[in-house]
Write a structure and sequence with these properties.
The structure is a single chain. This protein folds into two domains: 89 residues; 216 residues, BirA Bifunctional Protein, domain 2 (2-Layer Sandwich), CATH 3.30.930.10. It is built from ten helices and nine strands. A seven-stranded mixed sheet has the order 1-4-5-9-8-7-6. Strands 2-3 form a two-stranded antiparallel ribbon. Strand 7 and strand 8 form a beta hairpin. The protein is rod-shaped, with a radius of gyration of 42 Å. The protein starts with a helix and ends with a helix.
Amino acid sequence: MDDLARLVAEAEAEVAGAASTAQLARAEAAYLGGKGALQAQLKTIGSLPKEERPGFGARLNAAKATVLASIEARRGDLAAAEAQGRLAAESIDVTLPGAPPLLGRIHPLTRTIQQVKSVLIGLGFRIVDGPELEDYAYNFAALNYPEDHPAFDEQMTFYVDDTRLLRTQTTALQGRTLQGARLPLRCATVGRCFRYEAVDATHHHTFHQVDVFMVDEGVSMADLKGALKQFAGAMFGGDVQVRFRPDYFPFVEPGVDYSIYWQGRWLELGGAGLIHPNILESHGIDSERYSGFAFGLGIERIHMIQNGVTDLRWYLANDLRFLRQF
């Protein structure tokens, strides 16, 4: 009986001294658990005289009830205190300024397109747009392509059906614009193009182009060179050198490639030339009276030169490590 009283006193002292619900749970297991000290007293009943066993059993149950009541009372106090502590730790000072939201940024190609459009508008060109799903007639036939041109190879073009394809060049808009146009005109368009390409550092199946064309009386190569010189100066600095070399494109005659001298070497930007008379005549424009020029440049190419980017695959990789640099 002295052992039972001693165990109750020890249990109540440990319960009263518990500083957390976790510590209280350990005390409960130590005294009331399956292997607890009070539970172990049941094993001593068999060693008592038969007449003392009922009384000891009643006292043991009373002792366990006393300790359990102490534990429940203490658990309520500790749980309330811990809840108050959590509330204090997790409280929000509503008078403090909020955390600023993460802001997006303009994609480097979008920024370059905006810059290109701004320059061209300043040169007097009207920005127009055309469909990415283009008719074969506008993408090839209206641009004076011969039937045996390599671009007709289906391995270079994404055909949707027999007459429609994903445009391979923004030059396709030229035929749509010249059809029934009121002259003179100055137009520019910027958009995505698609070609069946093996993707590497300088080729991609999806890329962006700017195409510019002008039709008026007396338009000459001098006008083309002047426009391209102005464009290069606005995009790369006013003192940039420009070079033109003969080249072939079905939709211009004569045709040239257009390069700038940048950081010690010549870099090609695109192709240009005077609009082929066949194209003008096919849209009812008198090629004896009117002439025009056209040029097309790669948007990725412009940004790569401006910023020293060596792999155009990064532009469509959605890698924030790359995009956050611009």
